[in-house]
Amino acid sequence: xxxxxxxxxxxxxxxxxxxxxxxxxxxxxxxxxxxxxxxxxxxxxxxxxxxxxxxxxxxxxxxxxxxxxxxxxxxxxxxxxxxxxxxxxxxxxxxxxxxxxxxxxxxxxxxxxxxxxxxxxxxxxxxxxxxxxxxxxxxxxxxxxxxxxxxxxxxxxxxxxxxxxxxxxxxxxxxxxxxxxxxxxxxxxxxxxxxxxxxxxxxxxxxxxxxxxxxxxxxxxxxxxxxxxxxxxxxxxxxxxxxxxxxxxxxxxxxxxxxxxxxxxxxxxxxxxxxxxxxxxxxxxxxxxxxxxxxxxxxxxxxxxxxxxxxxxxxxxxxxxxxxxxxxxxxxxxxxxxxxxxxxxxxxxxxxxxxxxxxxxxxxxxxxxxxxxxxxxxxxxxxxxxxxxxxxxxxxxxxxxxxxxxxxxx
Length: 410
Fold this sequence. Notes:
The chain is α/β, with parallel strands linked by helices. It has ten helices and 20 strands.
């Protein structure tokens, strides 16, 4: 979509639905899914990680564009099934699954339970047995290392996620012996938000080595192997977009070698991803309600801030605050520096420090990019009791208010 058509739509949303708003465009998601399939030549089926954005309308739309859904709580499982996903297309990850969640998911026809520990396997076996079920499971493994370049690492250090690869041969026979579970594959998700193709390809080769070693040792012909994608998006000015062709070029030969082995000939390879699919398709739109000068700095006070978009304020995995890419809707000139803050009574409510934009005046709209994933869902919306932001889904340039009910907020 062109910048002009995006701005036209954002202005329409701000006028007719209001601000602050998260606006999700479906067209870029379709393009991203197609780019993934083209780059990897259809070698991967795509699985959407609901935690990145569980808006019910978006989930309902995605069910016709992505093969699988990965959930990390029974709440996300409910959202997915209510949005029309068949339970058998869902997997359930997360290190802290409680018995009632396991029971509801297994009883509800969950496709695969992703086991994060032997303890969880024993609990799932007991619950599946009480229901007269045999539950398909994937065993999640935590590698001993993650290449440099990943924004968040879930392996290579003490981690709550999965079974450490050093312990897998102690754990795996115990899981295989459980009568009400059937191990149908393996799962590795060890790092996120990487913009370095060589690091991503190296990480996938680590996955392949572990998959081979475990499957050979236990004579397992897996139905499914899940690769946690780790594919990053360019959040900040100066970030270069990921070269997807380079990622594919660095790993396709290894994938084909795996599939050429008899054990893996019928195995489905799955790429699990969230932000890479939907992150760049979303904008956070906030209106400047006041402008002031303070000790030589120009400050724009906006109607949405940290309570709506914690990641953009720099408090979601960022050690040093870096401004998200953003623009003034409608453009203009001249460009100058401005600090942008939200409406909260705390000094940490900052959307941008010294961002260079066309001169900002009261009433202007700011669009924060890369807000389709980990925006509203990662934010403390109840803090200081402002109204929740709107959510808008744009299909064929037609905005639709899809705001979910998030509780009794003033």
